[in-house]
Amino acid sequence: xxxxxxxxxxxxxxxxxxxxxxxxxxxxxxxxxxxxxxxxxxxxxxxxxxxxxxxxxxxxxxxxxxxxxxxxxxxxxxxxxxxxxxxxxxxxxxxxxxxxxxxxxxxxxxxxxxxxxxxxxxxxxxxxxxxxxxxxxxxxxxxxxxxxxxxxxxxxxxxxxxxxxxxxxxxxxxxxxxxxxxxxxxxxxxxxxxxxxxxxxxxxxxxxxxxxxxxxxxxxxxxxxxxxxxxxxxxxxxxxxxxxxxxxxxxxxxxxxxxxxxxxxxxxxxxxxxxxxxxxxxxxxxxxxxxxxxxxxxxxxxxxxxxxxxxxxxxxxxxxxxxxxxxxxxxxxxxxxxxxxxxxxxxxxxxxxxxxxxxxxxxxxxxxxxxxxxxxxxxxxxxxxxxxxxxxxxx
Length: 395
Hints:
alpha+beta; globular
């Protein structure tokens, strides 16, 4: 049944409150470790399938078409939201992958708890010697009957300290080339042998963690996808991540119909744009903001309900450029007061450098755009086709 805008608002107004004047959303959880507000928000929306409308109704969605999902997303923007950063990996990465790759039992087991916020997921990909080169992952997974025994470490695992489950890529075959010997697993973060150590960022957050696995046992039922299919699932997951980050303007009125964004109105109202040089810099930041919105819309239209493509990398680059321009200029416009940690925008300023790293570095995104959009030659690779066991690695 097709649902219209009026019907959507009739349902949502009974579940959610309208935004409070002056309220603002967090940026990728910066400055917040709030789990409860997000859980309550998801619990309120799950029965109607409003948070993940395109998911099957049996798993917390409402079997909506892509067009209906867009209408619902736009309508949700008119109501008070919550900090959903802790739930982002499950909702935006693991959920879509489970729908595409998971078994029926895995979908039945994990999707509804993701949709209602009762279970939080983290993403265990990067390692100390396998950052941007994720295919070089060295965490081992060795078969032992109906179980796998994992040994190794992961780093930059966001949400690791409070996640229920981890989506973990591990090496199951060292005799194959590095891209072919990986398999994906769902790891219970309460398993014996799992140790999580927080990593404090310069903005004070402790969302990043190191995760150490020592003889951690994972049942084969928790293997995601086929044996050796880990790299393909990794690529799909990262595409969803880029699309998610690139699909946001990170505060300041994302809607192009909202008039000037709130941050620009605040600068003007504070008298910061009287100087023509400052005004020109502000207009440059605003242009980046608008280009980001248009690039995001183009990426959405290109996907048309399908899996995200390379357009997400372009959108991610634009969103990062817009956010950093706004954060840095906001500090500059504050003058000497901008040197104080309690000055407006300080948290965003301290978070801004990380935006070029999260979800894949800017350099990786440019490679993807160059190779898959502009059809430029691939970056040279000297280790393709060589068994992982024969590769030279740091010790």
